[in-house]
Amino acid sequence: MTTVCGEVSTPAETPRGYADHKCGHLIRLHKIEGQVRGVTRMVDDERYCIDILTQIAAITRALQEVALGLLDDHIRHCVHEAVHADPTVAGEAKYAELTTALRRALRL
Amino acid sequence: MTTVCGEVSTPAETPRGYADHKCGHLIRLHKIEGQVRGVTRMVDDERYCIDILTQIAAITRALQEVALGLLDDHIRHCVHEAVHADPTVAGEAKYAELTTALRRALRL
Amino acid sequence: MTTVCGEVSTPAETPRGYADHKCGHLIRLHKIEGQVRGVTRMVDDERYCIDILTQIAAITRALQEVALGLLDDHIRHCVHEAVHADPTVAGEAKYAELTTALRRALRL
Amino acid sequence: MTTVCGEVSTPAETPRGYADHKCGHLIRLHKIEGQVRGVTRMVDDERYCIDILTQIAAITRALQEVALGLLDDHIRHCVHEAVHADPTVAGEAKYAELTTALRRALRL
Predict the structure, then answer these.
(1) Is the pTM of this model over 0.95?
(2) Domain total in chain A
(3) Which residues contact C86 (CB under 8 A, 6 or more apart)?
(4) What residues 24-63 of chain D have any CB closer than 8 A to a CB of chain B?
(5) I want to staple A73 with a disulfide (CB 3.0 to 4.6 A). Which of A17, A91, B24, C24 is the partner?
(6) Which H/E stretch holds residue D90?
(7) Do B53 and A33 lie within an 8 Å CB cutoff?
């Protein structure tokens, strides 16, 4: 599926928790892809190391912003709905999965 | 300049500290660019949030590996040479610049 | 209140989400306090920088483990209950507060 | 050895790279120890999770500041001197050790 941001899209049958913010995430990711391409060019052109490091720090931060947005949507929608539908089995599984994702995001 | 990794290249007049590892950095960055494109596609296809988060964590880690490699080269070459040539003024400036880069890399 | 881990305690009137894991958190925090004191001693004794850095990295990781445990408990209990009781106002406020805490934990 | 910050101390025979900033590091570490004790008390008193998380984020940041200061001193002194004295063997060993410490500090 190719989302054209700004156009009215046919909703997916089972929309993801981040459906409302999908366009925002896509715009950020396109920008990040361009930034990575920029860093590749900087290395190829043998630009100054410190300037490249500054760019990499900016990309890392931008990626973490996307991760935060997805985590946020995930907790508000997927986890919430699973816990609401079945607190013990499905809900517990979602919580455990979320903890693993948070652990990874915190680099533990 | 377009570096063709594996080919013998004419050395730049003032090669950067990371010149020896340039191809390694370029290969990693190309892979990262592809990974970012993959995440964009995952969001567009409305894949499961947790799977996207796992991918973003992998990209962040790969970017930090490139940053570590550049820091390493920078300390071994640029900082070392500046301090050797002029310990007080140029050397001190390089150290101060490095501290700023480390602070940014440590997210302080 | 002084919790004696292992003893049966009178439950607080409004127990926190982390009440069940309180003793685990306290034990970890006591250990962390000892580790910080150990680092202070290492600096005072002028021990080798790299060994001190290794210790600081271990403490940082241990602190992040406590943070992860608290986040986990918070999402499972406080956020869940607030959303259940009042999805629009109180629930929304809890989600917004959680996003801020996650942003801080991710160092954004 | 117990350093009394502010007093004139007899220099150690082989002062560490961070000798000049020792008092600053000790003051920061004492403050961090107090902050950890504060968090322990907050958990024991069953204070609100989000407030505890904010405190843990502040401690993590303070610890990383100490790490940055030590790294900085280490590069300026220990690494510099080892490379100066013996660029191939001892210098190379110091660089490799520094890379490992940076990798750990970057949580890779």
Answers:
(1) no
(2) 1
(3) none
(4) 61
(5) A17
(6) helix D89-105
(7) no
B52, B42 Cβ separation under 8 angstroms: yes
Whether residues C53 and D36 touch (CB distance < 8 A) is answered with no
CB distance A106 to B60 below 8 Å: no
Of B20, B84, D50, nearest to C105 by C-alpha is: D50
CATH no. for residue C81?
1.20.58.1000
pLDDT tens digit string along C14-39? 678 888 899 999 999 999 999 999 99
Calpha distance A65→A28 (Å, rounded): 9
Q: How far is CA D78 from the centre of its chain?
A: 15
Question: What's the CA gap between C68 and A54, in Å, rounded?
Answer: 29
Cα angle C26, C29, C30; round to 5:
85
Nearest CB neighbour to C71, from listed A65, A76, A102: A102
Q: D83 and B80: CB-CB below 8 Å?
A: yes
What the block records as the tokens of D25 is 């590091």
Place of tokens 């570096």: B3
| Full residue range of the structural domain in which residue D82 is found | 2-10+18-106
Taking CB atoms within 8 Å and a gap of at least 24, the contacts of A26-31 are A26/B40, A26/B43, A26/B44, A28/A62, A28/A65, A28/A66, A28/A69, A29/A66, A29/B36, A29/B39, A29/B40, A29/B43, A30/B40, A31/A62
Q: Cβ separation of B106 and D108 shorter than 8 Å?
A: no
Q: How confident is the model at residue C11 (pLDDT cuts 50, 70, 90)?
A: low
Residues in chain D: 108
Q: Does B65 touch chain D (CB under 8 A)?
A: yes
Q: How many CB pairs under 8 A join B and D?
A: 47
Q: Find out whether D98 and D75 touch, Cβ atoms under 8 Å.
A: yes
Local mean pLDDT, 10-residue blocks, chain A (108 residues):
63 73 96 98 96 97 97 94 92 96 94
